[in-house]
């Protein structure tokens, strides 16, 4: 699916220079479920943002589906992104002014999909994450777990091949966290590639592969037997 | 896609009620003001464009240019000018017509009325097209006993009877003729500088006893308009004008006896496109109607734009203030694949939606206010929504304002970097928009302060003009019109004497011209033993009670004395050709200076020489020695400066003014005078006015300007206040946590209110520094247009006052929010993180 070669990211501000990622080499194949772990500030989110093309590396190579995306224009990147990658955030990031179904539909708006098909897809995915009975609610009327389910639905409604999740359970209690993890696992079993950042070892266990970061470097990788 | 944009926009508007309300109300008020002022401006610009070939119509002006006194231009010309121009410029002028209203009385069925009858030439219809309802204009103007009247004239006097063929009697000077109505035309629209109720063909032979109306070169009593041929041009006529004047105009010997002098040394004629007269007249004096002023049009346009600018600033300020919140939405949209262009379009669409809503509300307000606005301006303004031009303008309004207000927020927001916004609870880089907001708040305050200064100056100047000392006591003075008409002339003495005996009447003066009645009659004069050409003074013929009635102080010498039979101008009867008779005269202070007589006391005993008659083609002179010097007055035109004037006690001089000083009640007095008048001259309409009212009215244009300025400035200030309130609410909300921490650390409510209030006082101070110089410059320029103006030092207290008002406004607006936040429980504020 994707391959990072000698990838580095350095943040420069007027006073300090932070090396958030330091010569990272990672390959993630299609259908994989990978968890990224590590202490706060080690560069997990930075890595995920670069994979998600929301940020650009300072040096190194990023091959997405075999294509080196270096130097692609923002428009081109956003095109690749919207067709292939879904995002889930710790703080849900739903739009407060839109209902549940409208929030999910938002992910299809920037694709050329006819209205009726959009409706069908939104219905299907809402059923799948079990939020259909809340379709007309506003995000503020939902619990955290429900909000995150909407976010998951939004991430996959466009048939994205890969989901990037940054601490998807960070704001949830353990039972809601468990629900979301099960949902991700189910998606993975259907073939979606998932890269997830988490602080919880038990949630990391859902993944077959765990990548440990420390100070911007990959320090350990575990692959759990199937 | 569009539905989704619309929904987000709509719900966003609903959710942020305060900001939405501020924006919509502000923009509605701004758009309302703009539409109202646009209607006003369009109307002012439409004057006299109703005539066919209006671009080829011109008005002719006369300028009297006597050495030593300022040039004096009037919009009227002598009656001889028309034929002379027609002949000289026969290849350039297609048609020309005079309009002369004189002062005619209309008699129908035994009653007498005053109606504005204009006597015109038959070519009138080639220049001006009237909407004829009934009859035929060419018949009406084909002989000198037909008349054309307008619709209201017809209804007023003939009711439902067909007016065609009806007769009425017109009396003016020696003319006393029965006219037959031959045409009825629609009343003139308000957007023309012409004004008349009825039209009749000029019959010059009927006015031989009043040669100044249509004969001679030295008097300008009528208007002259001409239509240029389409193959000629203005420049060509202008270039030949001097030659035309010098080969046609005859300067009378009393102006100059110098054989080498050219007529253009003393009299000049100029012409101006009729369509420019309303706003840019060469001369405002003696026009048929009160004209508009370009300064008014320009200043109102500026005010309208300022109000709108203030409303747009509100929009930008509130939108960028809220952008932290919206940044998240945008980041999500970007993550989901939205491109920058799409987002920019979305946010511009949102501001267009807002402006569109505001426009609808603004239009409702316009519809509600338009009747008041137009009656206040004495116009018939209508908003024609069905007119494609109007719609186009409104759409243009929405687009321009929507883009203006929405552009910055849209660009700034669409620039959001999702990785930064979504990562943490960190707020996106705000530095730039905070600075922008501060700049814009300063700008808003500067506009408000500038408008307050302008309003203050306009108000002060208007008050000053109205209450200015005109040199005589204007209260308790009744002035009667039509005293100079031919029918009244024989009874003047009797009327005067009977009015004098009325209870409550203190004093009665008969003068040649009415107080504040306009006009200016000059008489050329010489100084015995000196040969100075082109010396002249304004003429006022008075009686013995003149000074007493008007309460004009005598500076030196004495007034005319009934006991001295030699006082005044001598009678010319029986004088020999070339003879110099003796008499006395009074002059005012300006005249003393003008004649070079030194001090008022030194002027006593000095003499002026005038021509009093022609005998056998030769002048008879009078040397009048100055017996009194009176204080300068602004007698004729309240808006002008007074001028050098001589007061003659002169038998046979036509007297047009009857002025009564009274002590009692107004109505009782009026009824008393009316009784005497109707008893003696029932054929002359009784019309009167109180002098102080007339003077007030003369400044009605300034008063109107002042009132409108106050209203629109207030609107601008209110809109600015609303924006400031919103911003203060936002800042207070944003600083809740900081304030909580400060309170935990021991700050008092007072400390915190002071902190927040100071934050909003700094922009006011800065705004003062920006606004003062601009406002002072603009207002000094405005004041320049008045011959009489307030002392310029008054600008300084006004500026300080404006600053103080703005500071108070900012405190009032911000203080409430600040106190609320400051009083809140810090624990609650901190928990909300
Ligand atoms: N925009 C930025 N400018 C400067 N430094 C940054 C920026 N974003 C991240 N960093 C720095 O880069 C490093 C890695 O940040 P990152 O957000 O990737 O950490 P993380 O592993 O996700 O931490 P956490 O578990 O707390 O979310 C940190 O030291 C952070 O301070
Ligand atoms: Mg992180």
Fold blueprint:
The complex is a heterodimer of chains A (about 230) and B (about 850).
Chain A: E1 2-12, E2 17-28, E3 33-37, H1 44-51, E4 59-64, E5 67-68, H2 74-84, E6 85-88, H3 100-109, H4 115-129, H5 144-156, E7 162-166, H6 174-189, E8 193-197, H7 201-204, E9 209-214, E10 217-223
Parallel strand pairs in A: 3-8, 3-9, 6-7, 7-8
Antiparallel strand pairs in A: 1-2, 1-4, 4-5, 9-10
Helix pairs in contact in A: 3-4, 3-5, 4-5, 5-6
Chain B: H1 2-15, H2 17-45, E1 57-64, E2 72-74, H3 81-88, E3 93-100, E4 105-108, E5 111-114, E6 117-120, H4 124-127, E7 132-135, H5 137-140, E8 146-150, H6 151-158, E9 167-172, E10 175-185, E11 198-201, H7 211-214, E12 223-228, H8 234-248, E13 267-273, H9 274-280, H10 294-321, H11 323-335, H12 340-377, H13 388-414, H14 418-423, H15 431-467, E14 477-480, H16 486-489, H17 492-500, E15 505-511, E16 522-524, E17 536-541, H18 546-550, E18 554-557, E19 580-588, H19 589-595, H20 600-603, E20 607-615, E21 618-630, E22 645-648, E23 657-662, H21 666-680, E24 688-690, H22 691-698, H23 700-734, H24 736-744, H25 749-783, H26 795-823, H27 826-831
Parallel strand pairs in B: 6-11, 8-10, 17-22, 19-21
Antiparallel strand pairs in B: 1-2, 1-12, 1-13, 3-6, 3-12, 4-5, 4-9, 7-10, 8-11, 9-10, 14-23, 14-24, 15-23, 16-17, 18-21, 19-22, 20-21
The structure holds adenosine-5'-triphosphate and magnesium ion (MG).
Adenosine-5'-triphosphate (ATP) binds near residues 20, 42 and 44 of chain A.
Explain what the structure shows.
The complex is a heterodimer of chains A (226) and B (833). Chain A is an alpha/beta fold. Helix content of chain A is 34%, strand content 28%. Chain A contains seven helices and ten strands. In chain A, the strands form two sheets. Chain A has a six-stranded mixed β-sheet, sandwiched between helices. Chain A is globular, with a radius of gyration of 17 Å. Chain B contains 27 helices and 24 strands. The model of chain B is unreliable at 424-429 (pLDDT under 50). In chain B, helix 10 packs parallel to helix 13. Chain B is elongated and about 110 Å long. Chain B starts with a helix and ends with a helix. Chain A binds chain B through residues 45, 49, 52, 54-55, 74-75, 78-79, 81-83, 87, 89, 91, 93-98, 102, 105-107, 109-111, 154, and chain B through 1, 4, 7-8, 11-12, 15, 328-329, 331-340, 342, 417-419, 422-423, 425. The site of adenosine-5'-triphosphate (ATP) has 11 residues of chain A, from strand 2 and helix 1. Magnesium ion binds next to helix 1 of chain A.
């Amino acid at each position: 699916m994707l391959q990072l070669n000698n990838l580095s990211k350095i943040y420069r501000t007027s006073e300090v220079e932070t090396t958030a990622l330091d010569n990272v080499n990672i390959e993630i194949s299609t259908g994989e479920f990978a968890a990224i772990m590590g202490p706060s500030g080690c560069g997990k989110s930075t890595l995920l943002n670069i994979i998600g093309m929301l940020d650009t590396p300072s040096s190194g190579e990023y091959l997405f589906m075999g294509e080196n995306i270096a130097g692609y224009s923002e428009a081109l990147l956003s095109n690749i992104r919207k067709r292939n990658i879904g995002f889930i955030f710790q703080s849900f990031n739903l739009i407060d002014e839109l209902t549940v179904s409208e929030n999910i539909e938002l992910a299809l708006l920037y694709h050329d999909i006819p209205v009726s098909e959009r409706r069908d897809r939104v219905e299907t995915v809402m059923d799948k994450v079990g939020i259909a009975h809340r379709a007309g609610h506003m995000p503020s009327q939902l619990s955290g777990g429900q909000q995150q389910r909407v976010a998951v639905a939004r991430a996959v409604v466009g048939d994205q091949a890969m989901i990037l999740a940054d601490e998807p359970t960070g704001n949830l209690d353990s039972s809601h966290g468990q629900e979301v993890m099960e949902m991700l696992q189910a998606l993975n079993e259907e073939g979606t590639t998932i890269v997830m950042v988490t602080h919880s070892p038990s949630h990391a266990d859902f993944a077959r592969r765990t990548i440990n970061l420390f100070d911007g470097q990959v320090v350990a990788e575990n692959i759990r037997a199937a | 896609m569009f539905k989704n944009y619309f929904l987000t926009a709509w719900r966003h508007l609903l959710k942020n009620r305060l900001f939405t309300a501020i924006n919509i109300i502000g923009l509605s008020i701004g758009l309302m003001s703009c539409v109202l002022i646009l209607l006003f401006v369009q109307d002012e610009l439409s004057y006299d464009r109703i005539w066919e070939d209006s671009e080829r119509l011109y008005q002719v002006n006369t300028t009297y240019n006597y050495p030593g006194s300022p040039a004096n231009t009037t919009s009227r010309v002598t009656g001889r000018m028309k034929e002379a121009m027609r002949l000289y410029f026969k290849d350039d002028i297609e048609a020309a017509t005079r309009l002369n209203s004189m002062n005619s009385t209309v008699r129908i069925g035994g009653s007498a009325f005053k109606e504005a009858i204009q006597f015109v030439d038959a070519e009138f219809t080639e220049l001006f097209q009237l909407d004829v309802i009934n009859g035929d204009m060419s018949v009406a103007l084909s002989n000198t006993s037909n008349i054309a009247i307008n619709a209201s004239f017809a209804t007023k006097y003939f009711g439902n009877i067909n007016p065609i063929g009806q007769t009425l009697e017109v009396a003016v000077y020696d003319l006393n003729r029965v006219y037959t109505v031959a045409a009825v035309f629609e009343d003139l629209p308000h957007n023309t500088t012409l004004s008349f109720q009825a039209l009749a063909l000029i019959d010059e032979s009927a006015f031989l006893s009043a040669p100044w109306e249509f004969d001679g070169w030295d008097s300008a009593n009528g208007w002259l308009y001409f239509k240029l041929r389409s193959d000629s041009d203005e420049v060509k006529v202008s270039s030949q004008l001097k030659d035309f004047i010098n080969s046609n105009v005859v300067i009378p010997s009393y102006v100059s006896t110098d054989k080498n002098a050219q007529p253009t040394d003393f009299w000049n004629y100029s012409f101006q496109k009729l369509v420019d007269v309303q706003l840019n007249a060469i001369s405002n004096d003696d026009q048929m109607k009160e004209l508009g002023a370009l300064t008014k049009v320009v200043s109102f346009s500026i005010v309208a734009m300022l109000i709108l600018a203030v409303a747009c600033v509100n929009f930008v300020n509130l939108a960028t203030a809220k952008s932290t919140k919206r940044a998240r939405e945008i980041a999500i949209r970007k993550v989901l694949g939205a491109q920058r262009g799409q987002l920019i379009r979305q946010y511009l669409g949102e501001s267009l939606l807002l402006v569109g809503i505001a426009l609808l509300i603004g239009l409702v307000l316009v519809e509600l206010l338009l009747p008041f606005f137009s009656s206040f301006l004495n116009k018939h303004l209508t908003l024609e929504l069905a007119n494609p031009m109007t719609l186009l303008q409104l759409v243009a309004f929405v687009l321009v304002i929507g883009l203006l207000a929405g552009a910055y927020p849209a660009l700034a927001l669409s620039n959001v970097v999702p990785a930064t916004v979504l990562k943490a609870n960190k707020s996106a880089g705000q530095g730039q928009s905070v600075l922008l907001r501060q700049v814009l708040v300063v700008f808003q305050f500067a506009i408000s302060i500038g408008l307050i200064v302008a309003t203050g100056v306009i108000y002060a100047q208007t008050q000053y003009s109205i209450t200015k000392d005109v040199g005589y006591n204007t209260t308790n003075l009744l002035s009667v019109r039509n005293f100079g008409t031919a029918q009244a002339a024989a009874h003047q003495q009797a009327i005067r004497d009977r009015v004098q005996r009325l209870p409550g009447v203190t004093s009665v003066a008969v003068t040649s011209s009415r107080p504040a009645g306009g006009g200016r009659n000059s008489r050329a004069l010489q100084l015995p033993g000196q040969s100075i050409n082109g010396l002249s003074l304004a003429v006022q013929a008075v009686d013995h009670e003149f000074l007493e009635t008007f309460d004009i102080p005598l500076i030196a010498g004495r007034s005319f004395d009934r006991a001295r039979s030699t006082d005044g101008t001598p009678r010319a009867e029986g004088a020999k050709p070339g003879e110099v008779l003796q008499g006395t005269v009074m002059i005012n202070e300006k005249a003393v200076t003008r004649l070079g007589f030194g001090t008022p006391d030194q002027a006593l005993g000095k003499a002026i020489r005038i021509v009093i008659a022609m005998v056998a083609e030769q002048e008879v002179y009078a040397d009048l020695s100055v017996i009194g010097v009176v204080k300068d007055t602004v007698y004729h035109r309240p808006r002008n400066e007074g001028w050098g004037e001589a007061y003659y006690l002169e038998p046979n001089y036509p007297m047009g003014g009857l002025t009564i000083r009274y002590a009692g009640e107004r109505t009782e007095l009026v009824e008393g005078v009316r009784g005497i008048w109707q008893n003696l001259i029932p054929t002359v309409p009784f019309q009167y006015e109180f002098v102080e009212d007339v003077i007030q009215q003369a400044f009605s244009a300034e008063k109107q300007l002042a009132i409108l300025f106050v209203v629109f400035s207030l609107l601008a200030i209110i809109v600015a206040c609303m924006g400031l309130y919103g911003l203060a609410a936002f800042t207070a909300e944003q600083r809740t946590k900081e304030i909580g921490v400060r309170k935990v650390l021991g700050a008092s409510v007072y400390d915190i209110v002071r902190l927040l209030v100071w934050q909003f006082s700094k922009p006011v101070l800065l705004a003062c520094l920006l606004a003062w110089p601009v406002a002072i410059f603009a207002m000094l320029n405005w004041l320049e247009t008045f011959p009489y103006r307030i002392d310029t030092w008054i600008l300084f207290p006004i500026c300080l006052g404006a600053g103080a008002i703005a500071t108070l406004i900012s405190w009032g607006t911000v203080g409430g929010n600040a106190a609320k936040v400051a009083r809140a429980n810090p624990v609650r504020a901190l928990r909300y993180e």
